[in-house]
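Run log // design_07
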């Protein structure tokens, strides 16, 4: 949907893997447009709003959006253009052959969460495809990524069921508050204190912390750390040379703090991540 620039990363086993940067600079909704395929959109940087079959969600670098043929999809970019994502199109017959495929076949489109180590595997796959790997390896790594995405979707469905048991009006108000807090971080709020974020969304720190945890299943601190680790990974993947500058840009205490947080979340220090995600040499 919309305008963008991208490139094909591979077409293993009839699947289609690509990466793209959205160039749509339009705050209002575009669509709805009927989806034509089983498609996973893994966000890498930036943020936007998506609406699948009338259900609106805030999509950022911690998110994956999964659609299936016939889903009505709309998007909006109130925070501006430039979000970067990886797309994976999966044939229906391939899903039908997988034991875990019914999770996607039997469900309308939805947004889920991608854990930190699965995100690193996703980014390492993109880097390997950029450098050049054969179709066999690409297929194996894509199937592994898809297994992780479908496993995570089961947890996502459990979370939605628990949320549905809350009072609808309260749940809607809480989702809006959590949405506004995520917008603050998506627009560069990594260096803000908790009081600053709470004031920005017209809440008290206590209420915001409690509501955010209830809606997302994670604390504000955990979410902020995960999001800024994704930002560091994106910059490393594009060749950023200086960890000290990244630490300052994303509100870490210093380079050592950045190293500890990255290692805790993805299991590797930034130096190893840099090697895994290194852009191809010309």
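design_07 sequence
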């Amino acid at each position: 949907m919309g305008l963008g620039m991208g490139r094909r990363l591979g077409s293993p086993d009839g699947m289609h893997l690509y990466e793209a940067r959205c160039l749509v600079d339009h705050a209002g909704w575009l669509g709805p447009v009927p989806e034509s395929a089983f498609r996973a959109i893994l966000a890498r940087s930036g943020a936007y709003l998506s609406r699948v079959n009338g259900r609106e969600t805030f999509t950022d670098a911690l998110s994956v959006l999964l659609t299936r043929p016939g889903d009505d999809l709309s998007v909006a970019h109130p925070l501006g253009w430039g979000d970067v994502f990886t797309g994976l199109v999966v044939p229906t017959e391939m899903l039908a052959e997988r034991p875990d495929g019914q999770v996607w076949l039997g469900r309308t489109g939805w947004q889920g969460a991608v854990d930190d180590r699965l995100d690193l595997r996703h980014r390492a796959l993109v880097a390997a495809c950029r450098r050049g790997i054969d179709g066999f390896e690409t297929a194996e790594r894509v199937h592994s990524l898809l297994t992780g995405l479908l496993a995570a979707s089961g947890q996502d469905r459990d979370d939605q069921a628990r949320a549905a048991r809350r009072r609808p009006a309260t749940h809607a108000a809480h989702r809006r508050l959590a949405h506004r807090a995520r917008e603050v971080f998506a627009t560069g709020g990594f260096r803000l204190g908790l009081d600053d974020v709470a004031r920005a969304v017209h809440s008290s720190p206590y209420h915001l912390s409690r509501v955010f945890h209830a809606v997302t299943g994670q604390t504000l601190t955990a979410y902020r750390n995960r999001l800024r680790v994704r930002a560091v990974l994106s910059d490393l993947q594009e060749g950023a040379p200086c960890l000290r500058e990244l630490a300052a840009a994303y509100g870490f205490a210093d380079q050592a703090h950045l190293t500890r947080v990255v290692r805790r979340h993805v299991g590797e220090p930034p130096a190893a991540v840099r090697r895994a995600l290194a852009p191809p040499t010309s």
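The chain is about 50% helix and 20% strand.
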